[in-house]
Structures are given as structure tokens and as C-alpha cells.
């Protein structure tokens, strides 16, 4: 099996398992708190809620214009293998990818996470299933407390000073902060 096929299979499986776990946890929390399955949100509000998944999808399209989906999958797979095995840690030194600072990366360090949370929140608003709101919340916490800090360490290990300069020029986290942030592409000396 080629590395690209392995990347697609493994990363897709991990993402599916995580979303399933967060959905199940959301369902259990909803039940434990006695929150109804649906809140009965008005149709107008639910239609306005279409803006969230549309925004998430648009962010993904913008992201993939600057970093193709296969590159994202391959990088994620390489990071997973580096984390789980000594051989993967040795392979880190052989990685030839470049630091992407264009497109949505100018405004937010983790646009893929932002898009995923927007999509889930949007589907909650549109479909009115409360477990989706909990799922999106759990996913946002997972990205913020587990995945993003790990990714920062990995990017620093891969790109060193180049990543540090980018990080200083870009707001931390998965959500853009436009107030006081320069809206131009960060310069890397």
C-alpha cells in the first residue's frame, strides 16, 4: 500500500472515530442533562444557521487552494506516525513540506479546525439535534487543548525559527482575531 493510500485510510479512520466518539459523548451528555433531542428552533433561525456550514465549507475551499487536501492528509499521517513510533520520529527529519502561511493561515493558525467546528455547529443549527452542539463543543475543546498544542510543537520541530516568526505574526488558536491584527501576509526573513 502506498504512503498516500495509507494516509487517506488511516487519517480518515482516526477522524471518523473521533467524530463518532464526540457524537456519542454528546448524546450521553444530552441524555444525562435531560436536554431534549431537538430544541424546536424556528425555521427562520435554522435557515440563518446555514451560514455556519457555508462558512466552514468556504474556509475549507480557501484552505485547499493554498494547501491541497492530499498534502494535509500526508502531513497528518506523518505526524501521527512520528508520534506513535520511533521510525516515524526518524522520518520527521526527511519530511520535505514547506510552511504554509498564505490564504486563511494569514488570519488563523488552525483554519482546518475552525472549519470543522463551523461545519458541526452549522449542522446543529440547521438540523436542530442538540447532540451536534455538544459534539462541536467537545471537538473545539479537543482541538484547543490537545491537537493545537501538539501541532505547534511539531511545526516548531519541523520549521524552527521560520515557524516562530509566523506564530508571532498570527493570532494563536483556531479563531481569527481581526482587531489589531495586520491583514497582510506575515513576512518570513
Question: Uncertain spans, ≥5 residues at pLDDT below 50?
Answer: 179-189
Q: Count the helices. How many? A: 8
The largest sheet, given as strand count, sense and whether it forms a barrel, is: none
- Gross morphology is globular
Order of helices and strands: HHHHHHHH
Structural class: mainly alpha
Q: How many β-strand stretches?
A: 0
Detailed description of the structure:
The chain has helices spanning 3-33, 43-48, 51-66, 69-84, 86-92, 111-127, 130-159, 161-169. It has eight helices and no strands. The longest helix is centred in the first third of the chain and has 31 residues, at 3-33. By secondary structure, the chain is mainly α. Helix 1 (3-33) packs across helix 4 (69-84), helix 4 packs across helix 5 (86-92) and helix 7 (130-159) packs across helix 8 (161-169). The protein is globular. It has one domain. The model is unreliable at 179-189 (pLDDT under 50).
